[in-house]
Amino acid sequence: EMSGDLSQILPPQALAQLAREWLREDVPNFDLAVADTHVVCGFSTKIEVECRNEAEAKEAAKAGADVIMLDNFKPEELYRVAQFLKLEFPSVLIEASGGVTTETLTQYFSANVDIISLGCLTQGCPIADFSLKEKKLQIYMALCEKVIAPLVKK
């Protein structure tokens, strides 16, 4: 049985990751998801939103995401979208991810791209499943009770 303060049960990184996953699953609206994540995780946590297209990237940036991951964008589209985002939201960090290899890495270089992720750093490595999804409902309910409910009552 889960009891007590979640910050005593889970390390901050795990709690932040769970909040991000659950908000993405349960709250498809970026505005609410980003705002709620900032409330749960605090101002010092960077909120990264994985975006599959330009519309999602614009919505995530407008919602206040700190990092926009442009996932599986072709280099030409990446340049265009990253340039727009940097002009409209100068403080947002842009990450290129998906399909980037050591051979294609230089194709993703851009003054508007801050981070480039290489899947080869993790692909092929053995995995360890430490999923907490079986306890998701209990933890989520405790999170709502201990963190979100007091904020709503104010």
UniProtKB/TrEMBL annotation:
Q: Which UniProt keywords apply?
A: Glycosyltransferase, Transferase
**Biological process according to GO:** NAD+ biosynthetic process; quinolinate catabolic process
Domain named Quinolinate phosphoribosyl transferase C-terminal: residues: 33-133
* SUPFAM superfamilies for the chain: Nicotinate/Quinolinate PRTase C-terminal domain-like
* Pathway assigned in UniProt: Cofactor biosynthesis; NAD(+) biosynthesis
The record, for Gene3D superfamilies, names: Aldolase class I
Query: Which protein, by its recorded name, is this?
Result: Quinolinate phosphoribosyl transferase C-terminal domain-containing protein
Designated gene of the protein: QPRT
